[in-house]
Amino acid sequence: AGDMPDPFAPLEKNGRLYGRGALDIKSGVAAMCAAALAFARGAGKLGKPLLLAAVVDEECNSLGTSALLERATADSAVVLEPTDLQLVVAHKGYAWFEVATHGRAAHGSMPSEGRDAIRKMAQVLRSLDEIEAELAARSPHALLGRASLHASLIAGGQELSSYPAECRLQFERRLLPGETEAAARAEIESALASLRGRDPEFAASLRPLGARPAYEISPDAPLARAVAAAMRPELGDVHAAGMAPWTDTALLAAAGVPGVVFGPAGRGLHGKEEYVELASVESCARVLARLIAAVCG
C-alpha cells in the first residue's frame, strides 16, 4: 500500500528508502559498515580494536547480543537503533505478567453452582487501572516521562452456556531506571491481596513472563561526551534524549559495557509502511567515522 507496495522489494523515492527493516535496523548496519570503510580508506590504522556486530533476535530474546557477550567484550558501545539522529542516553525497561482468575465451571442455567472467572477478571482490570493512575501521578523521569501499564491479551471461557472456570490476562509494565521487576510484581500482588480481602470468592494467581531492565547513562559520561563531540560538526547542538522502547544497550551495560543509542531517521517501525531518510544514514555514518577516529584511532 502507499509508497511500499512490496515490503520485501526496496523502493527509493524522494530521498527515502522504503522496505521492511529499511529503518529498523538495516539503516544502522549500513551506517556502521560505511563508517568503518571510510575510516579504513582515510585515517587507516586502529589504535584500539573496533568490533562491528550485526546481531539477531533483538525483537524477542536478544539471543544474538547474549551470544556476543559470551565471546567478546568492549570498553563501550554505540547501539544503532533509529533515533532520528539524537543522542539517546536512557530507555525504559519492561516486565511481563500473566494473572489467572479461577472460577467454577457449571451449566449456564445453574448460577448457584457456577463462579464466573471472567467477571472476577473485571476486578483485576479495575485494579490495574488504579495502579496505572498511581504511576501517572508519580514524578516523571526527566528524559523518559512516566512508567506505564497496559493489558495486552485476554482469554477465558469455553462456550456460551457455561460459567467460565478460568480467565487469563497478560499485561505489560514499562519500567523506569531504578524500577525492578520485583517491585512491579509486588504492586500487582498487593492489588490481588486487596481483592481477596474484599471478596471471599475471589481467587487468582500471578505468573511472571519475563523482564528487561531500563537503562540510563549520564550525558557527562566519557562515551556520551565523545559521541556528542562527533555529532556536533555534522548536526550542530546536541541534547541528550531518552527513548521509550527497550534496546540491547541494557544487556551490554549489565555485562560491563556502557553504551549509548544513536541511529538514522525515518518512520514506520513495525508498520505497514517503513522508510529511512537516506540523508540521515549518510549523516550517521559520518558521525560514526569521526567517533572511530577519536576513540579507536
Describe what this molecule looks like in 3D.
The chain is of the alpha+beta class. The protein folds into two domains: 163 residues, Zn peptidases (Aminopeptidase, 3-Layer(aba) Sandwich), CATH 3.40.630.10; 120 residues, Alpha-Beta Plaits. The chain is 36% helix and 24% strand. The strands form five sheets. The protein has a four-stranded antiparallel sheet. Strands 7-9-5-10 form a four-stranded antiparallel sheet, covered by helices on one side. The chain has a three-stranded mixed sheet with strand order 11-4-12. Helix 5 packs across helix 7. The longest helix is centred in the middle third of the chain and has 21 residues. The two termini are 46 Å apart.
Topology:
Blueprint: E1 11-13, E2 16-18, H1 22-41, H2 63-71, E3 77-79, E4 87-91, E5 93-102, E6 106-107, H3 117-137, E7 148-156, E8 162-163, E9 166-175, H4 181-198, E10 204-212, E11 215-216, H5 222-235, E12 240-243, H6 249-254, E13 259-261, E14 266-267, E15 275-277, H7 278-295
Helix pairs in contact: 1-7, 3-4, 5-7
